[in-house]
Amino acid sequence: MVIKKSFNNSTLFYSIVSAPVQCLYSAMRNYLKADTIRTQHIMTGTTHGGARSMGLEDITDYSTSVNPLGMHHTIYNTLRDVLDQSTEYPDIYNTSLEQDISKYLGIKPEYVTATNGATDTIYNICRHMTQKPVLIQFPIFGEYVTAAKLYNCNTILQQTDNITRDKDKFIQAIPQDGCVFVCNPSAPTGRLACHSTIHDIIKAGKDANCTVVVDECFIELTPDRDESVLKYVKRYANLVIIRTMTKSFGLAGLRVGYCIANDTITKGIRQYRIPWCIGTVAQTAAKEALKHPEHITDAHQIIRTQMPFMYNILSESPYMEPIRSDANYMVIRTKQLATTIQNKLLKRKILVRDCTSFGMPYHIRISTKTHDKNKILCEQLIESCRV
Ligand SMILES: Cc1ncc(COP(=O)(O)O)c(C=O)c1O
To answer: CATH code at 113?
Structure first.
């Protein structure tokens, strides 16, 4: 069994020279178990951005995990009305939007910093952490490593697909005077950790004078359990939470994200925010979306029924192994390379996420849409995974 580790223009990937699938899994696990992976030599860069980034048209996109209901219907009318304001500059620092977000969350506006998607926030935080040691839960959304490396942070990856189980090991790896990134629920697996686990990490971070950034970008689309650490923001000056309206309110193309942290750290992060970073159209859509929190609870109804529906159908296939998720997306272990499955499905006008860039070349990720669309996805997926 040989695993060849190689670096292409942007991602770490593994190619199999020869091996049965089972062997590959155990070798992958051993490799990733390598406790802490230093990333000095890992090339980074965004490899995925949904159908539009791939130049695809007429495709049903299950690769990005946004609200299955899309945008709230009232946003369309609001946007028509605001288009003629587009020759004017937008609200320079998104003040009115931040006030609305703070009301929506029930916290002080001074704690909220709105940005051009959560990705913009990730870059601002890493810039604030320039040259500091940064511990990142791995696998995770790729922009954490990219941004940390851009700002010459000493980047350390801690492999874990279960932060609850691996909490002690993770806490031991927390650097002094640095920063930690964790994702809850985790991406790509969708496993939701209990808030007390994240609280322990925040406390350990405080003792090490370390900022703890908790990515909660999918937490609003994770029904039934409230495991957010929002309630700790006031108490812990080292806590930053990242959220995004691109997922929860289906505004991925409009780009609105934000971070929540107490005043001191917020002031630090805001230094790097670019003026007018969110356009008028996006600010207006976001303000309208926040008037309809029921849009998220309506999405919960779909997620609650559709995720088990898809899991049950797919787990009957001998050619794949879906992994249970608490969120609106699910990782599936496949017998063929994820790239092969993705290509087969593209011929059927379906896009799924190839998880190779997460270091998982035999896994794909799908997200839930409405029942009829999910049925089609499952049928096509079962056909495409057959070997
Ligand atoms: C875990 C996670 N955090 C943050 C982001 C960035 O979200 P945004 O579209 O708001 O930049 C993503 C995007 O896929 C993500 O998966």
So the answer is: 3.40.640.10
Neighbours of 231 (CB within 10 A): 12
Q: Residue written as tokens 């909490």?
A: 167
Q: Which atom of ligand 1 is nearest to the CA of 256?
A: 10
Structural domain contains residue 275: yes
The encoded tokens of residue 296 equal: 């998220």
Determine phi and psi for 68, rounding to 5 degrees: -60, -15
Q: 146-181: per-residue pLDDT in tens? A: 999 999 999 999 999 899 999 999 999 999 999 999
In this predicted model, what pLDDT tens digit does every residue of 129-152 receive, in sequence order? 999 999 999 999 999 999 999 999
Is 347 inside a domain boundary?
no
* Beta carbon of 246 within 6 Å of any ligand 1 atom: yes
Measure 190 CA to ligand 1 centroid, in angstroms.
13
3-state DSSP helix/strand/coil percent for the chain, to nearest 5?
A: 40, 20, 40
Only one residue has tokens 């937490």, namely 219
> 338-346 and 371-385 are packed helices; what angle lies between their axes, rounded to 10 degrees?
120
Q: Are 149 and 129 in contact (CB under 8 A)?
A: no
Which of left, alpha, beta for 281 (phi over 0: left; psi -120 to 50: alpha)?
A: alpha
Q: Whole-angstrom Cα distance, residue 120 to residue 178?
A: 20
- 198-207 pLDDT per residue, tens: 999 999 999 9
For the entire predicted model, the pTM comes to 0.89
Residue 252 tokens, joined: 């991925």
Instruction: Give the total number of structural domains in the chain.
Output: 1
Residue 130 included in any domain: yes
On the question of a cis peptide bond just before residue 133, with omega within 30 degrees of 0, the verdict is no
Would you say residue 42 lies in a domain? no
Pocket test for ligand 1, best of 217, 254, 353 (most atoms within 8 A of CB): 217
Give residue 198's domain range. Answer: 74-290
